[in-house]
Amino acid sequence: MSKKAIVTGGNSGLGYATAKKLCDNGITTYIIGRTKDRTENACAEIGPNAIPVIFDLNELDKIPAMIQEISGGDNIDILVNNAGINHKKDFTDVTDEEFLRIIHTNILSVFAVSREVVKVMKVNGSGSIVNISSMASQYGLPRVIAYSASKGAIETMTRAMAVELAQYGVRVNCIAPGFIKTKMTDKALNSDPVRKKKVLSRTPMGIMGEPSDIADAVYFYALNESNFVTGTVLPVDGGNSIGF
Predict the structure, then answer these.
(1) What PANTHER family does the annotation carry (predicted)?
(2) How far, rounded to the nearest angstrom, does the alpha carbon of residue 150 sit from its chain's CA centroid?
(3) Among 7, 174, 188, 207, which residue's CB has the most CB atoms within a 10 Å radius?
(4) Residue 201 belongs to some domain of the structure
(5) Alpha carbon of 95 to those of 105, 109, 226: distances in Å?
(6) pLDDT at residue 183, rounded to an integer
(7) Where in the sequence is the domain holding 222, given as residue range(s)?
């Protein structure tokens, strides 16, 4: 029986690359996305192992039923908590509502999805959860206070989950991507040459990463090659977080 995975926010960017990596290696992967056309098109591009799930993760009360439907009485072997949103604004201009919106999507939905998936994994005595953090949790970045707070929480949750869930055979790890070539980063950096130069100058490897670099790291954590690894946070950033 093939393994079963869930990738949240898997219809574009890092999530898409991750879902493709899993599917290409024979893992049936449920891609959760809010936008019907984008999610279905992504699955069609990836191939028959990709199954679209049109769902808004902000609807916390509906998450248990959604996960139950995906599990179908079988195990869920892999969960990749990739979905998240950002918000750029000066610290003093961020409203309570804006801050809470980031927390709701980036923390509460990760908790709720993980909780329901773990209920399934516990019964089967195995499973791997991979949370996606950010360089914003590794050091201070301006104008992203809510996003930074949410990703710091993800890394702390990773360690807490790993300790509590190890007894059930469930491993929990985290990846903190650096600057990766996506449409979003291209748009941000190509319009700001000074910032792009700063990014590359403090990255020892001198280049930006590819989405496949994140997908490869997820794949390592997801399968038995990392069988004795839990509670870790892996920066995949070309050395950016330790660069000077």
Answers:
(1) 3-OXOACYL-[ACYL-CARRIER-PROTEIN] REDUCTASE FABG, SHORT-CHAIN DEHYDROGENASES/REDUCTASES FAMILY MEMBER
(2) 12
(3) 7
(4) no
(5) 16, 21, 41
(6) 80
(7) 4-179+210-242
CA 163 to mean position of chain CA atoms: 20
> Is the residue at 192 inside a domain?
no
Residue with tokens 């999507």: 105
Contacts of 119 (CB under 8 A, 6+ apart): none
Taking only the tens place, the pLDDT of each residue in 213-244 is 999 999 999 999 999 999 999 999 999 999 88
Select which of 16, 30, 139, 147 is catalytic.
147
Angle at 156 between CA 244 and CA 88, to 5 degrees: 60
Q: Which three-class secondary structure state does DSSP give residue 9?
A: coil
Please tell me what DSSP assigns to residue 207: S
Residue 81 sits in a domain whose CATH number is 3.40.50.720
Mean of all residue pLDDT scores within the chain: 95
Residue 7's pLDDT is 98
Write the CB contacts of 169 (distance below 8 Å, at least 6 apart in sequence): 121, 124, 125, 126, 127
Q: What is the pLDDT of residue 73?
A: 86
Whether residue 203 is contained in a domain is answered as no
**In the annotation, is 147 catalytic?**
yes
Contact by Cβ (8 Å): 63, 117 = no
Neighbours of 90 (CB within 10 A): 9
**Does residue 197 lie in a domain region?**
no
31-57: string of b/e by CB count within 10 Å (b at 16+)?
bbbeeeeebbebbeebeebbbbbebeb
pLDDT average, residue stretch 56-83: 96
Place of tokens 């920066």: 235
